[in-house]
Design a protein that fits this description.
This protein is α+β, with helices and mostly antiparallel strands. It contains three helices and four strands, in the order βαββαβα. The protein has helices at 16-26, 47-52, 70-82, and strands spanning 2-7, 31-37, 40-43, 60-67. A four-stranded antiparallel β-sheet has the order 1-4-2-3, covered by helices on one side. Helix 1 runs antiparallel to helix 3. The chain starts with a strand and ends in a 5-residue tail after the last helix. The relative contact order is 0.33.
Length: 87
């Protein structure tokens, strides 16, 4: 398992479009993805789970990936978050 902490940059937070982009980014990798924030763990491969976590701009999150190609998946997920997703 690999993990990294990052902050939500998008001014709108993790609404529908960024959640969809996040899921599309991690889906090609054969690993489990978990996002931790506000004491909750949500499935990083589920748009609805990501939206229900109410991830707002400036919030610190931890992304955990476990499985084949986990390091590549984590790198892609963190890069997407830090890019601002759809700014």
């Amino acid at each position: 398992m690999v993990s990294a902490k990052t902050r939500i940059v998008d001014p709108m937070g993790m609404h529908m479009r960024p959640a969809q982009r996040f899921v599309q980014t991690v889906m090609p990798f054969a690993c489990d993805v978990t996002v931790l924030a506000n004491g909750r763990e949500v499935d990083g491969r589920s748009i609805m789970d990501l939206m229900s976590a109410c991830l707002k701009q400036g919030m610190e999150i931890e992304i955990r990936c476990e499985g084949r190609r986990e390091a590549e998946c984590l790198q892609a997920a963190v890069a997407l978050i830090e890019s601002g997703m759809d700014q």
